[in-house]
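Q: Here's a chain of 288 amino acids. Please give me its 3D structure as C-alpha cells.
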Amino acid sequence: MRPANLAIGCVLCLTALAGCSSSSQLASDAGSSSAGAAAVCTPPGYHVAADASPIELVDALLVDPNGDTVPNLNVQVCGINQCYTGTTNGAGRIAVEVDEPLVLPAFKYGDGYDFAELAAPLGTEAQQDLGTIVAVPLPSYAEGAAFPASGSVTNGDLTLRLEAGTSVAYDALTYSSPAERVFRSAPAPLADSPSAFPASFGFELGYGVAPILTTLCPAAGLSVKNTLAWDPGTEVEVFVQGLATDEEWAPYGSWAKVADASVSSDGRSIDTTSGGIPILSSLALRRK
C-alpha cells in the first residue's frame, strides 16, 4: 500500500486556486539554466487558506475502463492536513470513514503501481457517494522505459525529453525498487472521469503516469502523440494535477499549467515550446 502523505502545505501561495487559471511561472522558468550553470528548480507553491470540511464517510465503486470491478485497490481520502486510506473489497466497493475535518479534501484512487493515481475533489457534505469511478490501468513494469541520463524516454503516447545532467528524483518511499522506477503512461477516459478532469478546464487529452511524484530538474520537455488529429501549428496548454498535499507544483486535487505546446508541422505530435514537466503526475492537455 502506498504510504499516506501527511505533509501540510505551508509554502507561500503565488497563484490563486481557480478553476481555469494557469500558473504564473512555467516549469522551464523555474528550472531553466544558462550554459554551464546548474538548474535551479524552485516550485511556485499553491497553498491557500481554506476551511475544513466535516466529512464522515466517502463511498465509491471502482471499475476499470471495460466496466469490470477492481478489487484490492488502494484509495485515499485526504485533505492537506490528514489522510485516511482504504482498499476496495472483492466487489470493487470502498467506504472510507473519516473522523477529522479535512482541509481541501480529495478522493485519490489508483496506487501508482498497477493503476494510475488520480484525484477527485470532494464536497463538504458529511456523507458522500461518488458513484462509479473509472480506474486507469498502467502498463506492466516490464513494458516501462528506464530513464536515461539524457535524451528521450517513451511509453505509450508520451515522450519525455531530458537535458544532459537532468536530476531525476524518485519518491523512494513509494518506489523502493529500481525495477519500479520506469516511465509508464496510460490514456485516461475523460468522458468517464469528470470528477478528476472537471469540464470547467476544457481538457481534451488526459494521461496517468508513473512513477508518480518523481521530480525532474530541469523540467523535461514533453511530446504527445496527436491522437485527436489536431491541425499542425495548433497551440496547446499542458497541465499537471496536484497529487501531493504539500501543493508545491499544483494545488492539491486540482490542476496547474506547466507548459505551452504546439502540434508539429507534420501533425504527428504535440510538443512543448516553453515550460515543461517538473513532476510526474497526472497530465492533461487542452487547445488554446
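Q: Can you summarize the key feature?
A: Residues 141-287 form one domain.
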